[in-house]
Amino acid sequence: MVLGVNVAWDNEPDARKFVEEYRIPYRVGRDTAGDIGRRYKVEGTPTSLLINKDGSLFGRADGAMTEAEFTNHIDALLKKK
Fold it and tell me: Which H or E element spans position 70?
């Protein structure tokens, strides 16, 4: 599953506009309390986190990624046993 999270310090209306403008094909929620950002030590955006089923961090990418980079990260996570 892919889930987007709008961090607490980002402007919510701008985030909604981004999701609509770029037709983001996955659900995007808001981390209003900053709990997710703190748990995974998110200090800037964009940050992409690959989370195992148990909630542990599998990998991360700080900054923008190309589609190929994103695909490679997802493939590595799916191949993990």
Answer: helix 67-79
Enumerate the domain spans of the chain: 3-79
Topology at the third CATH level for domain 3-79: Glutaredoxin (3.40.30)
For 44, phi then psi, to 5°, come to -160, 170
Q: Provide the whole-model pTM.
A: 0.73
Query: Tell me: the pLDDT tens digits for 15-66?
Result: 999 999 999 888 999 999 999 999 999 998 889 888 888 888 888 999 988 9
Contact indicator for 40, 60 with CB cutoff of 8 Å: yes
Q: Which residues pair with 52 in a beta bridge?
A: none
Query: Do 57 and 50 meet the contact criterion of CB atoms below 8 Å apart?
Result: yes
Alpha helices for 2-81 (secondary structure H): 12-21, 35-39, 67-79
